[in-house]
Design brief:
The chain has one domain: TolB, C-terminal domain (Neuraminidase), CATH 2.120.10. The chain contains no helices and 28 strands. The strands form 8 sheets. A 4-stranded antiparallel beta sheet has the order 3-28-27-26, with no helix packed on it.
């Protein structure tokens, strides 16, 4: 999660980002179904997260549209069809007078509520219309990143613990995993630099799976924050995490330019998708066995079948 000219250095990994300029109108892919659908010229702007909405039959894509830390109210969420073609580029638009949306990142859906991480608050919108319906602040947060909803409806969000200074992106020390109680108030599940810049999160019945951008670790957290490490993927800069129908974990890696697959808790990791630059927060369409991968630096979405 970086933007024009930012340099992010953490855990020995340096990522320098230079975004491509805006493209032209979207080109429709060939009618025949292909293993990969790449939209070369789109209205996406720093796409950070892709989420499949099974009830709506659409992909939602969050667009930072600038700095990941700037409260510039120009972020937006796009609505794409199952093939990745645009339905509305700016379905939810921070530029609208009734919408606040600065640098949207991870998203999750509970019933008809869409939750979106936005720097230091989690914003809520109607899944059906995109209308804003509230927000949940996270006191002290600096880089809210991914959102997940557990089977019991509990909402979780990660804080990757970064802030901006003259050198670029530097650690803020706010690394944490938060959950919202029944009253909507944020409470920590786990906090501290040992979390390694927690990024993607997956909430399941038996706990949380978290992937780290900074340390390249993958670990489980139980309800009181006790940690169990899983095998580390071949390379780090980890961003998104999803689980497929066969129980595999899929994790995107900036350093590896890949999406890795873990079929068993003892490993090994294998490559599910290769040759993807700056793969951000991935979205899984279980109905078609397809993975949507935002290419953060290229303003594109790639959709790949994963078997």
């Amino acid at each position: 999660m970086l933007s024009n000219g930012w340099s992010w250095r953490a855990g020995g990994i340096a990522v320098c980002v230079l975004l491509l300029g805006p493209g032209s109108a979207c080109k429709r892919p060939e009618p025949a179904r292909q293993a990969a659908t790449v939209l070369p010229d789109t209205g996406l702007r720093t796409p950070e997260s892709a989420l499949w909405d099974p009830a709506g039959g659409v992909y939602l894509v969050s667009n930072i549209n600038g700095s990941p830390l700037a409260k510039d109210d120009n972020g937006f969420i796009s609505r794409l069809d199952v093939m990745g073609r645009p339905l509305l580029w700016r379905w939810i638009n921070g530029a609208d007078t009734n919408v606040a949306l600065h640098a949207p990142k991870g998203m999750a859906i509970r019933s008809d509520t869409l939750f979106v991480a936005d720097i230091d608050v989690v914003r809520m919108f109607l899944r059906t219309t995109g209308a804003p319906i509230g927000e949940r602040p996270v006191p002290g947060a600096t880089f809210l990143n991914d959102v997940a909803v557990g089977p019991d409806g509990t909402v979780y969000v990660t804080d990757s613990g970064f802030r901006a200074d003259s050198a670029g992106m530097v650690p803020s020390g706010t690394d944490a995993v938060w959950r919202f109680g029944a009253n909507g108030v944020a409470e920590p599940v786990s906090r501290g630099a040992s979390l390694g810049g927690p990024n993607g999160i997956l909430a399941e019945r038996d706990g949380l799976t978290v992937v780290s951008f900074g340390s390249g670790a993958v670990y489980r957290l139980d309800a009181i924050g006790r940690r169990t490490d899983l095998p580390a993927p071949p390379q780090g800069g980890l961003d998104g995490v999803v689980r497929t129908g066969d129980g595999s974990l899929l994790v995107s890696s900036w350093a590896g330019k890949a999406v890795y697959r873990l079929r068993s808790v003892v490993g090994p990791w294998t490559v599910a998708v290769d040759s993807v630059e700056s793969p951000a927060d991935i979205g899984w369409n279980g109905e078609r066995g397809e993975l949507a991968i935002p290419l953060f630096n290229a303003n594109k979405i790639v959709i790949r079948q994963v078997r």
